[in-house]
Amino acid sequence: MGDFRSGIRSGIGRRTAVALGITGLVTPLALTLGAAPATAASCTTSAGPYQKKVEKFLGRPADGRQSAADCQAIRAFQSKHGITPTIGYAGPVTWGVMDLMNKQKAVGHHPNSAGRCPVNKGRIACVNLTLQLSWIQDGSRLVYGPVPVRTGRNGYETRTGAKKIYWRHIDHVSSIYHVAMPYSQFFDGGEAFHSVGVSMWNPPGSHGCVNMTTKAAKKYWSLLRNGDDVYVYGRKPGT
Questions:
Q1: Which of 10, 18, 81 has its CA nearest to residue 210?
Q2: pLDDT, tens digit, 9 for 90 and up, residues 57-105
Q3: pTM as predicted
Q4: C-alpha 180: how far from chain center
Q5: Taking Cα atoms as reference points, which of 229, 222, 208, 225 lies closest to residue 164?
Q6: Alpha-carbon span 100 to 83, nearest angstrom
Q7: Alpha helices (H) in 21-91, listed in sequence order
Q8: Residue 204, preceding bond cis, omega within 30 degrees?
Q9: What residues have CB less than 8 Å from 14, skipping those under 6 apart?
Q10: For residue 226, what pLDDT band results from cuts at 50, 70 and 90?
Q11: Comparing C-alpha atoms, which of 66, 8, 63, 2 is closest to residue 37?
C-alpha cells in the first residue's frame, strides 16, 4: 500500500494500481474450494479430497474419514488463518496453505541454499515469492530470518528484481485506503515491507506489498536503512 506524496511522485507513479499491500479474502494459490457440501454456519460431515493429508498435518488420525473432532480441528485452523468458508472441509485451499507451511519449515536456516539472492551486495533483504519467505543476509551470512511473508495476490503481484529501499515511514497510513501500514519501508513504487494484523497465510495476499508480522517488521526496521538493497524473485503460487 502506498501514500503518494508530492516529494516522491516521480519515483512511485509507475503503477499506482498495484502499489497497495492491503489485505483481501479471496482464494490463495489459485485454488478454489469448489462445491463444499455445507453452509459457512455449519461443520461439514463430508470428507474432503485432501482429508488424509490435512488430518496428518493437524496430528489427527489419518484415516481419510471426517469426524466431528476432525471438523473442529480443521475449522480452528481455517479460522486462525482466514480461510473461508470456515466449515471444516479438507479442500484444496486449506491443504494449499498447509503444504506451503511444510515447505517453509523445510527451508530451516538455509533460505538461500540455491543462491538466488545475491551475495555480493553486502546487506540485502531477500524475498522468495515461491515460498513466501523473506530474510536479511550480509554476503552469504544470514542476519535475520527467514520469516513467512504475505505478498501480492493474483493480478497485483509483487514485482521481481533488484531494488533499493528509498523511503521509510514508521507510522504510515494509506491516504487511499485509510489502512495503517506500520514500519513501512518502500522499495519499488508503492510496494513496501510493512506489518499487518492478519495471518501471513491469510488468503489471497496483498496488493503488492510484502506483509509481515509486527515482530518481523520491527526487526526489518531496525536492520535496514534507505539505500539498502532488496531482491525479489520467484513466483507466488497461483499468480
A1: 18
A2: 999 999 999 999 999 999 999 999 999 999 999 999 999 999 999 999 9
A3: 0.83
A4: 17
A5: 229
A6: 14
A7: 51-57, 68-81
A8: yes
A9: 189
A10: very high
A11: 66
